[in-house]
Write a structure and sequence with these properties.
The complex is a heterodimer.
Chain A: H1 2-19, E1 22-30, E2 33-38, E3 42-47, E4 61-67, E5 70-76, H2 77-80, E6 93-99, E7 103-109, E8 111-119, E9 123-125, E10 138-144, E11 147-152, H3 154-159
Parallel strand pairs in A: 2-11, 5-7
Antiparallel strand pairs in A: 1-2, 1-8, 3-6, 4-5, 6-7, 9-10, 10-11
Chain B: H1 4-30, H2 35-55, H3 58-75, H4 83-106, H5 115-128, H6 138-146, H7 161-172, E1 176-184, H8 191-203, E2 206-212, H9 215-219, E3 226-233, H10 237-246, E4 250-257, H11 264-274, H12 287-294, H13 303-307, H14 310-318, H15 331-357, H16 364-388, E5 389-391, H17 393-396, H18 399-410, E6 414-419, E7 424-426, H19 427-448, H20 452-457, E8 464-473, E9 476-483, H21 490-500, H22 505-510, H23 513-518, H24 541-550, E10 554-560, E11 564-572, E12 577-585, E13 588-593, E14 597-603, E15 609-611, E16 614-619, E17 622-628, H25 629-632, E18 645-652, E19 655-661, E20 663-671, E21 685-690, E22 696-700, H26 702-705
Parallel strand pairs in B: 6-8, 13-22, 17-19
Antiparallel strand pairs in B: 1-3, 1-4, 2-3, 5-7, 8-9, 9-11, 10-11, 12-13, 12-20, 14-18, 15-16, 16-17, 18-19, 21-22
Helix pairs in contact in B: 1-2, 1-4, 2-3, 3-4, 3-5, 4-5, 8-10, 15-16, 18-19, 19-24
The chains are: A alpha+beta, B alpha+beta.
Amino acid sequence: MELGKSTVQELLVEEGKAAGETIQYIVIRLGEEQYGIDIRSIDNIVRMQSITRIPKMPAFLKGVINMRGEVIPVISMRLKMDLEDDVITKATRIIVLKLEQEGNVGILVDEVKEVVSLSVNEIEKITYNAKEEKSSLINAVGKHNGELISLFDLSVISLEGN
Amino acid sequence: MDVNQYLEIFLDETKEHLQNLNTQILELESDPEGEDTVNEIFRAAHSLKGMAGTMGYKRMQNLTHDMENVFSEVRNGNIKVQPKLIDVLFQCLDALEEYTDNIQNNADEGTNDNEALIKQLNDILNGENGGTPEPAGDASAAAAASEPVGGDKWNDIALDESQISVIKEAQNQGKKVYGLNVVVQENCILKAARAFLVFKAVEEMAEIIVSMPSAQDVEDEKFDRDFTLMLLSDAELDKIIEAAESVSEIEKATGALIMLENNPSYKKAEEEKTEAEAAVEEKSVPAESAAASSEPQAEAAVAPAQAAPAKQDTKKAASKPVVNRTVRVDIEKLDSLMNLVSELIIAKNSLVSVSSQEQTNTNSAFNEQIEYLEQVTTNLHESVMKVRMVPIESVVNKFPRMIRDLSKKLDKKLELYMSGEETELDRTVVDEIGDPLMHLLRNSADHGIESAEVRAQRGKPSVGSIFLDAYQDGNNVVIEVRDDGNGIDTEAVKEKAIERGSITPEQAANMTDKEIVNLLFLPSFSTAKKVTDVSGRGVGLDVVKSKIESLSGEVEVKTKLGEGSTWTIRLPLTLAIIQALMVVVGDEKYAISLGSIQTLEDIVPSDVKLVQNKEVIHLRGQVIPLIRLNEVLDIESKRAADENLVVVIVKKGDKMAGLVIDELIGQQEIVIKSLGKYIKQCKFISGATILGDGEIALILDANALI
C-alpha cells in the first residue's frame, strides 16, 4: 500500500519532470513548521467545527464531523507527529483529503497559509531509515523562496486507520 | 435485434419462471394428478421457451421446448407422472439454471447441449417412460458434441402429418425415401454456402421433404457440422450421395433407404391414430429405433421443434397469464430515492430544531406547517421503505426443492414445513439472507436429523421435520430454522474444541452449554464425523454468523440433545432510517434504536444491588444488570451520585440490560450514516446520524452492549 502510493507519487514527479510541469501544494502550518500537501489529494478545506468524539479510539483520531451530510473522520496531525495537542484558534482548519481506499478523511492543521507551485526540480525526495518514525510522515522537501517546505506522504495517514 | 437492453428483464423473469417450475414440479410429485399444477407448469415452460427464443438462446430454447412437449403430453393425459419423470424434469431445471447463470455471467448460454437430458425427454415422449437411464453427465454430452457426427440420424427427423402423407403418397407412386446426412469439413468457412450447393445438387435428382435443421437454419448457418435431409427420389442413392460429395469442402455424405416405421414421430403418429389410449403404455419399441436414438446426437433437439402439433397452440391461447400490476425498478434508483428522502428528513429535523429554538414569538401557522411537513416526510419515508420491501418468499421458495434433493442424497426422509413466507424485508437484506439460510437448512438435514434407524430407536416419526418460520417482531424480522433431530451434542463440541486447541480443558470445564454451542460459530469448526458433500467441511456456521452480522442481525441457537435445535436469526427491518431515542451522557448526545428499547425507568440509587460485584436492579420480578454508559464511553457523568438514575431497559432476544444515562432528549427519526471505512472497529457504535443542528450523534448498538 505504502509502496503503491509513493510509487504513484514518484511516477507523477517523473512525469512532471519530463514535461517540466509544476505541482501545486497547499502550505499549512503545524506549530512552527510548514508543510505542503499536494493539492490534487485535497477535497475541501473547512473551518473548525464541532467534532463528535468517538469513544475507545486512539487519541489522534479526534472524532467525526458533518460535511454536507457526509460523516468524515478527523485526525489530529499534531498528535500523529507526537506534538502537543491542538489548540483551537480562529486560524484552525480541517483539510479534507480524498484517500483512495478510505474515502474522505479530515486532518486538523493550525493554519492554512498559501498555495505554492513547485516545479519538479524544486522537490527533493528524501529517504529515511526505518528508525526515524517521526519523520516518516514526510517523503519529500520542497524549496520555495528560500524556505523549506516538508511534503506530507499521505499514504501514512491512510495506512494507520486504526 | 439488440437484445442487451432486455437481458436484465430476461434474467429476472427466467429466474421467476424457474422458481415457479421448481415449486410446481414439487407439487406435481406429491400430487401427480393435479390438473392446475400441470397447466401452470406448462405455462411457465412455454413462457421460458418463448423468452429464450426471443433472446436467441437456442440451446435453452431447445431444452425448454422438449420439456414443454412432455408437459403437453402429461396435460393431455398421455403420459403418467412417475418419479423417473420428475427426476428428469428436475435435472432439466438444473440445466436451465446453468444456462441462466452462464448468460448472467458471460452473456452467453454456454455450449452444453444437454443432449442426454433431451434424449431422456424424448424417450419419455416416445413412450419409453424414461426406461433406459442414460448417464446424464455433462461430460458425455460435451464429448458427444465434439465428435464428428454422422450415422443414421434420419430416423430422428420428426415428421408432421402432412409430411407423412406426402411420403406415403410418394411411396405408393414407387418413389424411394432416402435419408441423407451431410458432414462439412471442419475448417469450412462458408458452411451455409456449401450446404446451399448440396441442396441444389440433391434437388436436381430428388425432392427434399424435410431437412434437419430446417432449411432456414441451414441457410443462416445455424448448424454445427452436419445436416440431415429426407428425400424422395426415383434415382439411385449412390448417385445422390455422389452429387452431394462433389460439392467442395464436404467431408462425406452418407445415406440409406428409410423405413418409415423406424421414425419415432411417424410411429407416434401411427400409434395415436390406431390406439390412442394405449399409446403411452407402448413398450415394444423396434430395436433399431432404440439403438438409433440412444446414440449421442448433436441435433436431436431440433427435431421436435418441427413436430409440435398444431393443436397445442389453440390450448395455449386459452390459458391467459395473470396480469401483474407491477413495475420493475432498478434497485439503484430506489437507493437514490432513499438517499433523497434521508436528506429531506435531515432538513426537516433542522427546521424543527430551529422552530423550537425560537420559542419567544412562535408563529402558529409556521408550527402547523412544520408539523404537516413532519407528517409528510414520515409517510414518504414509510412508503419508500415499503417499496424496497420484498417478501422473503423469493428466497425461501427454492428450499423445498433443496430439501427434496438432500433427502435423496442423504437417504433420509425429510420434510420441510415453512411459514411466514410473506414476511417482508428490505430488498438488500433478502438478497443476502439466502446463503446463510441454506447453510442452516443443510446443517439441519445433514447433522440434525438422525438416520432412520436411530430415529426408530428413539421412537421418533420416521420422517424428519425441518421447520422454517419467519415472522416480524417489533422492528425486527425473525427467521427460525428448527429441526426435530439430534440436537447439538455439547460434549462432542467440547472435545472437538479442545482437540483443535480452541479452548483448554480447564476452560471447557467452566463453560456453560450456551457458550459451548457458540463455539460452533468459530471459523473452521465442524463436528460432523464424516465429511459429506452436503456439509462438514467446516465452512458454514462462521460464514452464517458473519454474513448475518454484516446485515446488522444476529444468530442464536438453542438446542436440546436428542430433541432438536432451533437456530434463530434476527434481522433489522430497515437499514437506513430508524426511530431512535436520543439521550445525553455527560455532554455528548447518543441515539439508541427504539427497536431494542423495552422501557424507561427512574431508579432510586438505593435500589441498585450488587450481585457478583456487578450492579443489578430488580424490576417486576426480573434481575437486570446495569450498564453505566458514562463508564463504557469514558465520559464524566453530570449526575450526582445521590440523584435518581435514568435507566433505559434494552432487550436482545431474551437478554435484558439497563443502560444508565444522564438525560433523555426524546424520540426522533434518524438517518443512519456509516462512520466510513477509516474508522474500522468500534464495537458498540453502529453508526452516526446528523442532527437538526448539523451536529453528529453516534448511534449506540444496544445489542453489542448487552
